[in-house]
Amino acid sequence: MTLLSATDAILVIIDFQARLMPAIHDGARLVANARRLVDAAGLLAVPVLMTEQNPAGLGGTVPELAGAGPVIAKMSFDSCAEPAFLEALAGDMQLVICGCEAHVCVGQTVLSLLEHRRRVAVVQDAVGSRAAESKEVAIARMARHGAEIVTTEMVVFEWLRTAAHPQFRAAAKLIR
């Protein structure tokens, strides 16, 4: 994968859930960055897919992100174990991944997507774990296996490609 493309991407939001987020290191910043990604996706017509891990136990998606896209409930840590998840990602789109926890659900999902030969970009500043060390090790592992590691700002500006884009001003405001 080289540059990300808004015409060739799906934003995948993994398990940003109400009962989980208070335990996530730097959780408020991660949710804010995920919201920036959702808003940029909306401006640039990038589809959004969301998951919720055991929603009966961990609650629904945090209010800041609720309703951003269709939600697939799951019990497996690896979202790919849920047939509806892979069906929703049919085709050869770039998968831009954010969510929690980096070393469990995000990590297992990303590694599985890579095994399925999917193009995956993990948004480092919109992925979290309870412990910073767990996130750090997970990011390194995903990168070793072929995931691109990017930031929220990289995603937004690569989706835009040019300051001449009709949505440039609106998207740039999301970053500032």
UniProtKB/TrEMBL annotation:
Residues 10-153 form the Isochorismatase-like domain. Coiled coil: none annotated. It holds the Pfam family Isochorismatase. It comes from the Bacteria. This is Isochorismatase. It comes from Bosea vaviloviae. The lineage of its organism: Bacteria, Pseudomonadati, Pseudomonadota, Alphaproteobacteria, Hyphomicrobiales.
